[in-house]
Amino acid sequence: MADASLVNESVNEQIIEQSIEEKREKILSDLCNAEGDQATQAAKQQEAYRLEKQWKQEDQEKKDKANPNSLDNIIERYVIQNRADIQTKSISERVKGAWIDTVNYTKIGQKAGEKKQVTGKLIDLTLVEDGDLCMIDFDINKNLPKEKIDEIRQNIIDYMLPANFGLVKTCHSGLHAYCNQNGYRLPNNRCIKCIVLDNIEIDIFAQMYKHKSFEDDHMQTDLVQNRVVGPNTSIRETKNNVRETLKYETINDWANMTHLANLRDILESWNVDIEIPYAEFEKLKITRAFGQQTTNDGTIDKMDDELAQACVDGLKNLTIHNYPQPIAMEVSLLSVFSGIYGIANEQIRGQGLENVRKFNTLTPNAEKNYSQALGQGERKPNAWILTKILKYHNKEYYEQTIKPLLKKNYEAKKLVKQIHINQTLKPNKIDLSDDFTLLHIQKKAANGEYENEEQIIMDLTRIIAYYAGETEDVYMIKEFIAICGTLVIHHKLEGTIYKQLEKVNINFKKKKTDEKNDETKES
Fold it and tell me: Which domain of life is it from (predicted)?
């Protein structure tokens, strides 16, 4: 005979779990069926998704304790083991395939087929296979006396960093500190000046994305460059008419460092949090797509005259340097001329060239090498570079003028793509002028507005379609994107579509069950 106390305990647990589940369903239902405009509804739906995911994770953790040999636990142990394997590898092993030779005492990587003097190396974090290595760059105020710079650098090592960092002294006596990203979600590959102190500016470089295209296409091969200067690299600079050679030097046993520190732990120890939530990361991904300029055939997309004119008008009050540093750091003549020569409209291009000296300040070296940079820019035309220059160096103008035009350009390209898709849709077409979305279907199902499943299917034909892909049918669904404020078509795998429709089915069945229960009570 079963122990009565154990039976009662089991029953009580079931009642508690049922009560919790009912409360959760009520919260999710309220969020999914919230009133308001589409942006508000989308935000509520996102919150429902986040909560549902969190609760599932909590429930799974509870189940895992009872079943340590479940598939999920086995996979989790595999992931943990994989991270442990990364930890045991030295930095030199991890960057083995990521080295790029630098030439002629510059930070410029040697191109294929070139035979120039190799004077150092870059590390392209995009090419680091494990994707987990990141670098914290401490840029110490160069105007301080050398003794003070050395003191600050040593203080950083002693008080801001643990021992398990790969350390490199930069050419200007700053510090490169290598650690593991370990899942920390940075807003970008290159987080420039994400922490600014009186005498220290801190950048963080990591592998948040690898490809230039922002579509979820795992077959793409067009990689972004994400390069940092490696140790034992020499560069030359002219200061006060004196040419000097500077070097990046290792401070500790950089190449053989293993079990590197965790970026999250480091930032938390500084009381700094620059991690972004997943939803925000997805928004940034969409925003970055506004500036995408590579076409499907690998060419640079042409910039329309309206945007080109706006870019030229924004190239004012800039300090333009000669040396081609990354655009996020400073504006160089080469980047300006490359951008201007990428403009197709001859009149706008001419105005842009005229404005370079007219409205901006050129450094002495830039003035000296003006003609040379002009020729180099003409050979490497890319108008879209101008949008990046304005993004980093004329931020207010970029937000007010350039960004809306980029969005307009992005939506126009989306429309062209949609027209092409619509021509191949089977068996029905999706009308983007109709604001009816899956959210409306979910609400109708929850409110009991569907008498049968056939009515649901009729509504689904307004938002879902498919067309013949190369190997299988491709499903598409009309969705509202809050950041764009517009309806778009998203391509989805069959499994993903069914997961989205599951909420409709749950709402429909729940409403029917409630109606039956009500009828039973009345009888």
Answer: Eukaryota
